[in-house]
User: What shape does this take?
Amino acid sequence: MAAGLVVVQGAATTAPAAHAAPTWGTCPDTVSTPGAVCTTVTVPQDYSRPDGETIDVTVSKLPARDPDARRGVLFGNAGGPGGDSLTYFDDNELFTWPDALRDEWDLIGVQPRGLAHAGPLQCAPLNPADVLMLATNVGGAHRAVCESVSGDDWRHLTTENTARDWEQVRLSLGEEQISIHGLSYGTLLGSTYATLFPQHTDKVVLDSGAHPDWMWNQVLLEQNEPHKRRVHDMFDWIAANDATYGLGDTPLKVYQRWTERVLAEAGTTPTLAPPPARVGDVPAEWQSLAQAWIDGTTLTGPARAQLEGLARQLRNPGAMQSQSITLAATRSLAPQSQGWPMLAAALRDGTPLGVVDPEMPAVPAEALIAVNMQSAILCNENRVAPRPLDYPGFLWTQFVTGDIFDATGLMFSSGAACAGAPAVATPVEVSGDALEVPPLLINSVADPQTPLHGARALADRMGAHMVTVDGGDHGQVAKGNTVVDDAVVEYLRTGHTALTSAPAPPPPVAR
Assistant: This one.
């Protein structure tokens, strides 16, 4: 998908003259903002062998719209790991960046190594039918299929190496200091750069902070229960907008309509526990004992969901809820309330979500590369010991019930995700002690992807000033919350803000 760019895929190249000024030109066609320009910066593949093979890392830039007011450069990272950072500062359905950022800073996206346009990690496909491999050696098998195509490229995909790539980009830009805006995993990457190069770090905005000690076996486990609660929040919002969607005026009624959709797609029902019952759910014949009905329905709901799912699987061998596109989309959209109308409209209209073709056409090449890169980093620098007691739960949810809400975290916490792939790098112990300006960390109180107690740990480690935001959205800046956006601009201009808490962003518009 590159437009006028040559991407080096693990081949040795000749390094340019040290700190050569970049030549800006056309960006990959995924970069949509008018005025964006791109270049490549050549970096060592292995920083312990600076004269060895190299990677060409693509860099995007949105030049400050008001050159007279320009304050410097702001590096952004989209998280993941695996998020495309070339497009991070584009305005789109999810992000609308404050005018002051566009006016006063060059907005820089450094594509993380291992992704498309930055030495992409190419791997042969894994065999999804090999259950023994998936259960006992998926990490080792993934390394093997990557090595069969790309040699030992996987070994050099670490947060520290990506941070060092940032330093090479800074040198190429000729900037004495950079400011940073990192989202989610980008808070770890930004903190790593600030720890390694504090003298070249100006301001640091950590948006939705990840606990550095959870990387990586624990981080996804910590998301299991918060994701379920956030789905219930989504059903609550859909019920509140019943006039638009007609899916039910209580969360439980919406859940039931959603369950019907999952059943139609997967042949079985989801095992996600239903939301608590409300007065509006009570059948007419139970009105005289309404509270008893509500209490009993709420209490037995989780067990009923599990038993119904298993019963349907017994009647329909081969059925598994993880085959439902709607189920996957629900988990994916729950952390971002801006995506809730998409799910609600699809349920209302019976329209498809995600892949339409039942033959499951090939996943776009850039998406496969991102999955490969993420898998490599998660195992390369995993610092959390596996919990063998979680292994039966992983096997049950992965291969029997197909419950993606639990299986995702249990696959990592059990050690199955990186089985056969021991860590090859030790993450940098992040610290803000050497920074002249303390970072700013922003996190919602009910964020399912970066839970608040983990964000607080990162804030403590970095000495950051913390702002908590009501609600549970993941990612706070450029989401239409002017209180948050104004505080970020104030901090980037002055190095401080007095804000410590903020209201939730405006709710999504039902449509």
Notes: Confidence is low (pLDDT under 50) at residues 1-17. The first helix runs from residue 99 to 104. The chain is about 40% helix and 10% strand. Strands lie at 37-44, 54-62, 72-77, 105-110, 178-183, 201-207, 440-444, 465-469, 501-502.
